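Batch manifest, entry 17 of 40.
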Amino acid sequence: MSDSTTSVDPRRWKALIFIALAQLMVVLDATIVNIALPSAQADLGISDANRQWVITAYALAFGGLLLFGGRVADLWGRKRTFIIGLVGFALASALGGAASNEGVLLGARALQGVFGALLAPSALSLLAVTFTEARERAKAFGIFGAIAGGGGAVGLILGGVLTEYMNWRWTFFVNIPFAVIAAVGALLVIREPAGSRNPSKLDVPGVILATLGLVSLVYGFTRAESDGWGAGMTIGLFVAAAVLLGAFVLVESKVKSPLLPLRVLTDRNRAGVYTSLGLAVIGMFGLFLFLTYYMQIVKGYTPVTTGLAFLPMIVGMITGSTQIGARLMTRVRPRLLMAPGFLLAAVGMFLLTGIDLDTSYPALILPAFLLLGLGMGTAFMPAMSLATHGVQPRDAGVASAMVNTSQQVGGAIGTALLNTIAASATTAYATSHAKSAPSVDLLKLESMVHGYTAAIWWAVGILAVAAVIAFTMVTTGHQGGSGPVARSGDGADTAEGADAEADVPIPVMAH
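Output type: structure tokens
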């Protein structure tokens, strides 16, 4: 009997419950505050110029510290980092919910980002080192992928209910029971496999360069949305990000114990996953942003009705992730799930380019949401699994962090890029139709819808590019090997299984 067989954790499925619960909390928090922001702004007297910082403070801390959080998980232990992240996130949420002024709220959001950067990569890496048998790994990542994909829409629903029937503070307080239950469950049932830590010293120069580079990049896209792409500050931030991240790559290639071992990035398949996931998130963030405004402002839906309207997408994501992706992952090459999944999502997005002032929800929006959810669920599940499949156990944390980093950066790009496109198209339409419009109010609504559809067309193209990248770059066989902690003799006859042998470096795939 192999080592991997004898070391299987009998409580691993209970552990999955608490890992998934923590992931749900992090993902839904990214959207739940958006719904509550207008109420919080009015209550605390936050200016229009500063309200973006409620979102930006979290995004900068979370996106900038993800790689550091992944490395800390490998160094301290994933279970310990997971619990610290949960406790810290709960305390930061309590502080945000009790905030009496703008400064406290912004500080709480930044702290949420800091602890989220510890929590997110440790959760995914715990999953990667806990589930190593191919079929079990497929089921576990199917559940995790469905939660990661659908959590944003759940946040919209929950945010609408809490804001409409209670008040905005509960969009923060609601995180506390999630965190407490997940932390207690982690203490009781999660067991981290022995020998999977990376005891090497922390790469301090790498931490500084990566953090500053990612913060500059994320903040650059934020400023592009508010100031324009040609503004001096925007260009300066992008130049700084390029210099800092270039220096980071150089340092990582020279130091003995890098923050992000380049072997994690130079694998062709993992690079394809990170790139295609990042692009897909650009399209999805645009969808949530514009459809939320469309349904509330143009269609007149309440916050709760708007949230409920996204439910079919969640159903589609869960179905695609657990019933298609999980069932086929061990028998079908990842690109044959990822590429068709992204294309199916692109078809759903294409349907949404047909929205107008009188669009029927059952006739157009509902089928579009179902296709989007089904496609993204089918693609996300094998992608998230492949991102950590075949990684040395000591690198599981940083490989997991890269998944979150690609999504976070993709979200920042999506919000800035698509919002800028929508605003430009809205202005152009309003200018060209000003004289022929029957009323100012009607012109305003028609201009908004035109702007949304222009941005959604871009999202269609971006999802199509994600499909092409997934099909051309992800060339590995199906994920039927033994997984990331497979050792010689475990029957890991696939390339990924061979890559995962305990002390063998992951080879660079030269194609």
